[in-house]
Amino acid sequence: MYYSKLFGKTSKSVSADEESINAQYLIRGGFVNKQMAGVYNYLPLGLRVLNKIQNIIREEMTAIGGDEILMPTLTQEESYKTTGRDTMDVLFHTEGPSGAKYVLNPTHEEVVTPLVQKYTFSYNDLPLAVFQIQNKYRNEPRAKSGILRGREFNMKDLYSFHANEESLNEFYEVAQKAYHKVYARLGLGDLTILTYASGGAFSRYSHEFQTLCDVGEDTVYLCEKCRIGINKEIIQDQTSCPQCGNVDLVEKKGIEVGNIFKLGTRFTDAFGFKFLDASGKEQAIPMGCYGIGPSRVMGTLVEVFHDDKGMVWPESVAPFKYHLVALGKEEETYAEAEKIYKNLTSAGAEVLFDDRRDVTAGVKFADADLIGLPIRLVVSKKTLAENSVEWKGRADAEAKLVKISDLI
């Protein structure tokens, strides 16, 4: 990608009402553009990051047997009345022709349950799991923290359906492990802990995945022996580590980057969804749901991985691996940089080539630091005299010369 032709550019400033680091850097870096409070446009750089996060999640959900589907954003309000959730304060309601009433889905239990019901008849059809990656809508009273808490946001939601509680419990454990794999691949593995949280009406506890971060809006109590957390909201009920009994818990701040619930039969019962067992008798179907917000993860990555110059993307999700920068005015420099760019891209490397000729070296370096790609490659008259490029990791203090012939 040529930077001169990239849609969306860096900027030196951002609106004073953007207090969060992720909003400031993502907007300044040309990754997102704010449409209105809680709603963002994803520009090419930002979309590349979001797609990479989604693909990591997609691969791990597929690996545990999830079938990917895509459900509609819009649903008839009647489905929410069926489950008794039509009065949720976060619902966006809208009206169609002849007074038909609809909801913009904040989650998809009301859609997936009757959908799966149409294709499930006997015990031979269970267990099964389906997932999607799609935008959700919640009428947050105060959208804040950039893309961490929005009114429109991207979400992966997986739903599992089972013949009995034992099957649900087994899959629930498999999903937990898959989530840990996701966060490890995203670069958040060492900072993300399984956290016990309120189960609401479904079970005593649910589980969140909290990324420890000073700007997190959740308070968790960490068992440093087991790396298990307890959300502050249940600390009165659970004052020791659920795994080892340790009472010396450490208070931390966290950003919730995922959650998993055992839903029981609440939604399947509401829709009269049952299956026939081996004896031909109708049985209830317990469900589980498993959510990760790719857009929220993207904001979390910025909050965790940045310095005073800009973002520092993990390689697994960086929009490009290499930021190739040509310096000076000499035609030869840009011609050689162009050759390097084409050779790298031909070899399958992802390269953002700053080919601008009308800006200073200082501006190019500042933009490179702000955008935060893993490796910066500088081509100049000085480096070409050594048949080399200057190689610098985004988090490295010093640069080094690397022979052009060794780059590939």
Distance between the termini: 18 Å
Helix content: 25-40%
Mind telling me which CATH architecture of the largest domain this is?
2-Layer Sandwich
Q: Look at the structure and give the mean pLDDT.
A: 95
What is the topology?
Layout: H1 21-28, E1 32-36, E2 39-42, H2 44-63, E3 67-68, E4 74-76, H3 77-83, E5 92-95, E6 101-104, H4 109-117, E7 128-137, E8 152-161, H5 165-186, E9 192-198, E10 205-212, E11 218-223, E12 228-231, E13 250-264, H6 266-270, E14 274-276, E15 282-284, E16 287-292, H7 294-304, E17 306-307, E18 310-311, E19 322-326, H8 331-346, E20 351-354, H9 361-371, E21 375-379, H10 381-384, E22 388-393, E23 400-403, H11 404-407
